[in-house]
Amino acid sequence: MRQIDIGRISAVYPERATARVLFDDRGVEGVVSRELPIISKGSMGVKEYWMPEVNEMVLCAFLEGGGRQGFIIGTFFNEADPVPVTSEKIRHLAFPDGASVEYDMRSKVMTVVLPESGVLDIKGTVLVEDLIVRNGGGGL
């Protein structure tokens, strides 16, 4: 087995933050990995959680000595799933139902988009300074 490899998610186990990966370039049927941990950006105090989707392409790394111990490093954009924004100054998070969160570091504007039936549920105190309401935005 190669130490770095590309495959497609074949099964996801969200309760363990693991997944199985199909490497379809190996033989007629391909090879499916054992459950591999999905690398995150925090697992102690600050925790970030995400799960790739079945059929999503992922990059995997395996420890030397075979494919028994490995990790899913992450996903990447390609022709089928292109980059959603084209600026190094924008942080963007999009969801399949049309919801998104985007922050533009140049303009200092954060945009939250919700689908028609979406709800923004905020716990705690909200402090609003210099309030400007546009688009008839009733509610405040």
Structure description:
A hairpin with a 5-residue loop joins strand 7 (90-94) and strand 8 (100-104). The strands form 2 sheets. Strands 1, 2, 3, 4, 5 and 6 form a 6-stranded antiparallel beta sheet that branches. A 3-stranded antiparallel beta sheet has the order 7-8-9, with no helix packed on it. The chain is elongated. It folds into 2 domains: 4-75, OB fold (Dihydrolipoamide Acetyltransferase, E2P) (Beta Barrel); 83-119, no CATH class. The protein is mostly beta strands. The protein has strands spanning 4-13, 18-23, 31-32, 36-37, 57-62, 70-75, 90-94, 100-104, 109-113. The N and C termini lie far apart (58 Å). It is 0% helix and 34% strand. The chain contains no helices and 9 strands.
How would you concisely characterize the structure shown here?
The protein is mostly beta strands and 140 residues long.
Spatial gap, N to C terminus = 58 Å
Count structural domains: 2
Described by strand count, sense and barrel closure, the largest sheet is: 6 strands, antiparallel
Overall shape: elongated
Percentage of residues in strands: 25-35%
Q: Count of DSSP E strands?
A: 9
Q: Helix fraction?
A: under 10%
- What integer value in Å does the Rg equal? 20 Å
Secondary-structure-derived class = mainly beta
User: What is the CATH domain class of the largest domain?
Assistant: Mainly Beta
The CATH topology assignment of the largest domain is: OB fold (Dihydrolipoamide Acetyltransferase, E2P)
Tally of DSSP helical segments: 0
Order of helices and strands: EEEEEEEEE
The low-pLDDT segments are none
CATH superfamily of the largest domain: Gp5 N-terminal domain
Mean pLDDT, all residues: 89
Under the CATH scheme, which architecture of the largest domain would be assigned?
Beta Barrel
